[in-house]
Amino acid sequence: MKGAVFIGDELTALGYALAGMDSRTPPADQVDETFRRARDEGATLILLTAESVAQVDQALLNHALTACHPPVVVVPDARDRAMPTDWAREVKQTLGIGGR
User: Fold this and answer.
1) Distant-in-sequence, close-in-space partners of 72: CB < 8 Å, separation ≥ 6
2) What is the full per-residue pLDDT of the chain (100 aa) written as tens digits?
3) pTM here?
4) Longest C-alpha distance within the chain, in Å?
5) Is the backbone of residue 80 left (phi > 0), alpha (psi -120 to 50) or beta?
6) How far apart (Å, rounded) are the C-alpha atoms in residues 80 and 67?
C-alpha cells in the first residue's frame, strides 16, 4: 500500500518531501492523470494545492471527496498563490452566523 501523496508546485512539494511524503509536481495538463494514478496506486492520503485542484476533472474530484478513501485534502501552496475554500466560514455566512 502506498503512503501519503502530495500533488502540487515544486516549492511546496519540497516541504512535503522533507516530511516524508511522496511528492509529485506534474505539469498542469497532467495533474488530473497524476491524481487518478495516486488513487489507483492505493495512496492513503492525497494532498493537492488549491492551484492544482482546478486541473482535476470536477466529477472525479467530487467522487473522491465524497468517497473519503483515501481522504483528499486541498492545501495552500508555499507562496499562498491560491487558497483553498474556507468551508467553515462559507457555512457560517450562509447560515447568517458568526463574523464576516
Assistant:
1) 46, 47, 48, 61, 64, 65
2) 579 999 999 999 999 999 999 999 999 999 999 999 999 999 999 999 988 988 999 899 888 888 878 999 888 876 666 655 665 666 666 667 765 5
3) 0.77
4) 44
5) left
6) 28
Measured CA to CA in angstroms, residue 18 lies from 12, 14, 45, 63 at distances of 10, 6, 16, 30
C-alpha cell at 43: 495512496
Coil vs helix vs strand at 58: helix
Cell triple for 65? 471527496
Interaxial angle between packed helices 31-40 and 58-67, expressed in degrees from 0 to 180 and rounded to the nearest 10 = 30
- For residue 7, the surrounding DSSP H or E stretch is strand 4-7
Is the separation of the CB atoms in 51 and 62 below 8 Å?
A: no
